[in-house]
Amino acid sequence: MKKLSAVQLKQQKAVLTAVEALEQQATAELPGFVQGWFSLEYEAFPASLLVRLQLVSDEAVALAQPQLLLWQKRLSALMLKRGVILKDMRKHLVFTSQSPED
């Protein structure tokens, strides 16, 4: 694997900090929350960023779905605090019942 550049490391740190903050909020507010993780392609950042909040089951995902826009706004605000503008916040966060290994 290729070593990350200074800019890519800065991008990774910004995303990691935002996702950790989001995880803390989700632990307190989302019933059935398990974990959060993200994927991105550094060459296409921030458009390629996708954060997934894992819930315990498909039923928990269905119950949380009405709150999805609120959580997308929270991610957008957290990223903005770190100097990253997400043009369409709806593309960058989803609820899932699958784990990173699935």
Please summarize what this structure is.
The chain is α+β, with helices and mostly antiparallel strands and 102 residues long. The chain has helices at 6-29, 58-64, 68-81; strands at 33-39, 50-55, 93-96.
What is the topological layout?
Elements lengths: L5 H24 L3 E7 L10 E6 L2 H7 L3 H14 L11 E4 L6
Parallel strand pairs: 2-3
Antiparallel strand pairs: 1-2
Helix pairs in contact: 1-3
Anisotropy-based shape: globular
DSSP strand count: 3
User: Could you give the order of strands across the largest sheet?
Assistant: 1-2-3
Mean pLDDT: 93
- Sheet bearing the most strands, described? 3 strands, mixed
Distance between the termini: 22 Å
User: How large a portion of the residues is in β-strands, by DSSP E?
Assistant: 15-25%
How many DSSP H or I helices? 3
Order of helices and strands: HEEHHE
Q: Give the % helix.
A: 40-55%
Structural class: alpha+beta
Poorly predicted spans: none
User: What Rg, in angstroms, do the CA atoms define?
Assistant: 14 Å
